[in-house]
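for the writeup, i need someone to sanity check this before i put it in the appendix. the sequnce is what the collaborator sent (i think, or maybe the updated version? ugh). structure was predicted straight from it, no edits. if anything looks off just tell me and ill rerun, i have time this weekend
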Amino acid sequence: MLDPRITRLADVLINYSCEVREGERILIEAIDVPHEFTCECIRLARAAGAIPIVKLDSHQIRRSLMKNGTYEGWELVADAEKLVMENVQCYIGARGNPNVSELSDVSGELQKIYEKTVWNRVHVGVRIPNTRWVVLRWPGSSMAQMAEMSTEAFEDFYFNVCTMDFKKMSNGMKPLIARMENTDQVHIKGPRDTDLSFSIKGMPVIGCDGKLNIPDGEVFTAPVKLSVNGVIHYNAPTIYHGTTHNDIRLVFKDGKIIEATGSNTAKLNEVLDTDEGARYVGEFAIGLNPHCTKAMKDILFDEKITGSIHFTPGSAYQEADNGNKSDIHWDMVLMQTPEFGGGEIYFDGELIRKDGIFVVDDLIPLNPENLK
């Protein structure tokens, strides 16, 4: 018997996130996810009058292609996938992973080939600007282990996070968006030696309310590129290209990361030396999902943690473009709730959030007890 939570999630993706319409074509890219879920997305897409197209994939197969493929081969893949993407109006990217470290032994140079061909030409060049898209992680034993939860408890957590009332959250975001649009100086204080200042004056502000990512729940912008100064000491683990990093500490001067240390300092700096833009920041965001309360080394969840921020070395998004370009975009998370050391956010000198809880009247609807 089909789990009704699968139907509820597929309904969120088809009818809320993508808003699929009669006669439209939707590409469903299913990577290591159960066929039952893919089939339910197909059924609901067709019920909405759309034409579903499916691409099945596997991280194990992608690893083999990365290790043994060539630039020419990936260009051919990009040609084919770009043709499909140019002919659909909607896209769902459902991404499971039995082993989150599957790509850990693929060199950075080989992974860059994929990024410069398929990722940049198909996803950055076509999908993101030209389709109504949503991406999500699929729950599995690997994710449950990272979250340090039983499989059953993790599945309950997952479906609560991914099928919450995103419309209610969307309405609650509006005052925060308005405040950020009218803010110049941001000051972040946090555990250990975190003391960071930067400007967001004139930068666009975007609310993420279940339309692009599931799970969702953040409001993001970008710092003025050269305005960042101070120290941020992240307290959430993060995975980049299959390698886990802990205790990352970044020192900024006039926007640039001038010192970077962590549990794997050499590999951290290797990534930050990818190109000139990798040592500047492309995103500042505030996490809001009340069901995400701790890090689990999956960025689609961790960047939404209630009471958190993420501050992202690398390329800015087109929607909030501060001019920084890079081949990387690495979301790093700082949790500011009491159990993780607390912290404060100030907008133009006014305290707006303390220890993960909003303290100004117009933002109180975004506190966890009001969103659950």
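DSSP finds eleven helices and 20 strands in the chain. The CA atoms of residues 112 and 163 lie 34 Å apart.
thx in advance!!
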